[in-house]
Amino acid sequence: MLSGAALMPKILPGLFIDGQWQSGHELLSAINPATEICLAQVASGDAEAVDKAVQAARSAFADWAQTSGAQRAKVLRAIALGVAERRERLMQLQSSNSGKPLSEAAIDVDDVIATFEYYAGLAEALDGQQDQALVLPSEDFAARIRREPCGVVGLIVPWNFPMVTTAWKLAPALAAGCCVVLKPSEVTPLPELELAAIIAESGLPKGVFNLVCGTGRAVGAALSGHPGLPKISFTGSNAVGVQVMQRAAETVKGVSLELGGKSALIVLADADLDLAVDLASGGGFFNAGQMCSATSRVLVAEPLFDEFLQRLTQKAESVQVGNPLEDGTEMGPLASQAQYLRVMAHIDVGKKAGARLLCGGERPVERTVGYFLRPAVFTDVPLDSALWREEIFGPVLCVRRFTSEREAIALANDSDFGLVASVVGRDAEATERVANALQAGLVWINAPQVIFPQAAWGGYKQSSLGRELGPWGLAAFQELKHVIRSV
Question: Could you say which of 186, 194, 258, 390 is catalytic?
């Protein structure tokens, strides 16, 4: 199979502003985390480039905002078609730059297609919803409701799901009639640049979509604080999310945040053990655990605990860790050296805190190059330890027993986060009862972490501010206007 490296020129332009590809100044290296080889260098932007992109978007906004939903839908479907036509190319770039196995990269690309298709439908529906009548308690007045685009928006996306998080923000923003400035992660720019090239060919007027690659310090901060943007949407760590909010507060701009998680998977006493082990493994090791939705805290009913722990350990030890472009690979490397070192530091701190490591947590002996890590399973994890309470963003599961349903719910909810949760059990009434009691934005019952564009994404507490996907994702890029007149 031909890797993405063989298809890349050495230096790529990292700016797409006002319909033109442009080169920036600082060169960012896109690394293959499986080989530690530089795939390409990207000429990135700075605050000046951000300002040019914002001005281009502001110039384009008046006309784009007046297009019909049907016109926007046509563009969104063209993007979906372009992604579908380059599916194999995008999968290879995704695997080469982020370390995902090809099977996971395929899921990502299909998610992008589905998201643009979904918001094309919502864009078309807007035409029939505009200027709806509002019933008032007085016959002397008449009122109507308008849903209008909020303006030029800044989109900042992470490295763990490149293209996917971009689609989750970009598709509803365009459907609403907004113009955008997108900042991809400097770690995984290659699939994002390919997606940008598809968008550039979709029929969008120049200036509606703009992209500025660069670091968070040079580009992200400038975007968050730019006075020409009424809205910023960010996905990433809580620490950076706080900085985005602080910068946005200077100009009182709207903010949407999708941040961290420390989610729980609850295995009830009547659960199917094989299913429970599969869901725990998938929830902890998919994408090498680099997911805000990772169910990294596994709570198991006392009668099942010992057998579950034995089976989960065996499952973790059997995971095929290897080159993401090779057949049979179930888990690739972590996405960067920085992330590898961060996860290793968490594992070390956990062991020092008294947690018992049952398996994994070290580099495979056969992998001397690349940011590879064997899946780790811990038990006897102190409840006040960083391993139990903080987001690790790596293939690390912490398993704990519980003796009652009430205890399981209390342990699951005892977190600063509340993004997702999972429940496994045969008793439908019990699983529904537990799901309803969990403080999480999305709960799966006896199901893998399936995500549909129609269902909202976001969580409680420090996990998010607002919701993405579904009609709620569209509403995040709209302003509500009421017009009242005398009759």
Answer: 258
